[in-house]
Amino acid sequence: MPRAPKNLVPRINPVVIRSFYARLPKAGAADYYVLEKGQHAIHWCCLRVKRTQIQIGLRKGQSWYSIAVVPQDVGVEDLETLRDACRTKSRELEDEEAEPTLKEGRRTTWETAWSTFREYYTKRRLPSGSARTLDFYDYLFKTHILPLYGPMTLAAFAALPASRIEVIPEIIAARVREARPHYSGRHTGNHALHAMRMVWERCRRLGWIARDPFLDVGELPTQKVDVYLEDSDLAALGAALRNLEKEARTASEVTRQVPSLNALLALRITLYTGCRHVEELLRGKLSWLRLDYGVTRIEVPQAKGQRHGKSGRFIYLGPDALRCLNEIRRPPGCDDLVPGRTPGTQMNRLTEPWERLMLEARKLLDATSSGQPSAIRSARIVGYRGEERIQLFGGTQRIPVKATRHTLRTILARAGVSPDHARQLLGHQAAYLGDRVYLHEHGASLCEAAAKAEAFIRRLMGDSESSVLHFQQERRRKG
After folding, report:
1. Are residues 170 and 277 in the same domain?
2. For residue 393, what are the β-bridge partners?
3. For 67, which DSSP code?
């Protein structure tokens, strides 16, 4: 066991280092310590004089925390840098002495912290939350955060300069751009920052860390996409959609040259209903489709903004939306509303079919000399050239699939749908799933409002069949 320090110096300096290099222990002799003891001394800072070298570090009780080996010809600036490292370590030990849980911050890595938080989220929050949210957090950590900071301890991360922490969102955005050059990656960078803050805040509540390095880190500026399609856009989209559907019905089910018929039918449903296409359609189950009470609807068990208390909402369907759902090809025993190309999988997004549809609509718009306003003419559209995904039209406006929801919001009043019914159709003021009395009283009128909106959109798209007439005939037939 090392002996207690017998040598005291008021301050460790290069002269002290050289003097003790002249008194290194001989063979068989034990190491000894030189303690800094003076007005400007650092708590627990001392030298450990060994047979061949001198180390600088901290000695707290019988524990030795080595900082670095001090060379014999060390300069003043280099030695002060080592003393500053000792000062930082001394403060850490003092904090841990006052709060023993802070030791976990020195031991816990980002990888361990995420694993601990994931276990907590699964047990405490997942029953009332969304499994897709957890899947998204998994993606952020496994793809971006852990490759950058996984082995780093929380204490080491907190000690990073503010300039290195502030650029984390931009670093992750750059990783996204490297993999997908046509995306800015800003949204992913902001989501990753939010996920890291969430895990860090739980570690702070557990007492593993005291400092919050994310306190002054701002999010990257992003462009809010709140665009809607004009009448000329819907006319071009309708013509392009009919052409692609005709190709898809004759093409092989496994070909990727043409968007699958299932994807095109899902886009039609999205255009008719303005539903949140990922949460409420692509992740939907066939068991959600209900035809009882004389009301054709999809019952979404968990809707955005309604995951606590009165959860879920109804999506009311017009006759052509119901036709599209029934026409979607599903393997035997499949319960997915929109299955993927590979059996046993769900379709995870409509981005590529939507961009192909936008491209075909842009070609039709360019072929006409109409001076009508058009959002698609100024849109940024990407596509494929061989296996490479490239930007085909370099407009300033991005038009995502969500634009169909914004478009329906602008069309409902023109279609003769009352404001109260419009809020219900969009889910902004939705009856919760347990309220069956509501379906008896208002379901039929809401289903008729959905059919009116669908018929109006179909007329703008150039479809010949009148959904309202068909809907009214069906209601009269059913009595």
Report:
1. no
2. 381
3. E
CA dist., res. 419 & res. 164, Å (int): 50
Give the integer Cα–Cα distance in Å for 189 and 176. 9
Q: Are residues 314 and 373 in the same domain?
A: yes
Does 373 share its domain with 431? Answer: yes
pLDDT at 264 exceeding the cut of 90: yes
Residues 142 and 242 occupy one common structural domain: no
Provide the token pair at 126: 């997942």
Q: In sequence order, which residues have a C-beta less than 8 Å from that of residue 196 and are 6 or more positions away?
A: 145, 168, 214
Could you tell me what percent of the chain has a pLDDT over 70? 84
Residue 382 has pLDDT above 90, yes or no: no
| Continuous H helices in 315-401 | 319-327, 351-367
Could you say which DSSP state residue 36 is in? E
Number of domains in the chain: 3
What does the alpha-carbon distance between residue 350 and residue 367 come to, in Å, rounded to a whole number? Answer: 26
User: Domain end: 47, 69, 98, which one?
Assistant: 98
With contact defined as beta carbons under 8 Å apart, do 381 and 392 qualify? yes
Domain of residue 181: give its range: 106-205
For residues 42 and 28, give the distance between their C-alpha atoms in angstroms, rounded to a whole number. Answer: 31
Q: Which helix (H) or strand (E) holds 390?
A: strand 388-394
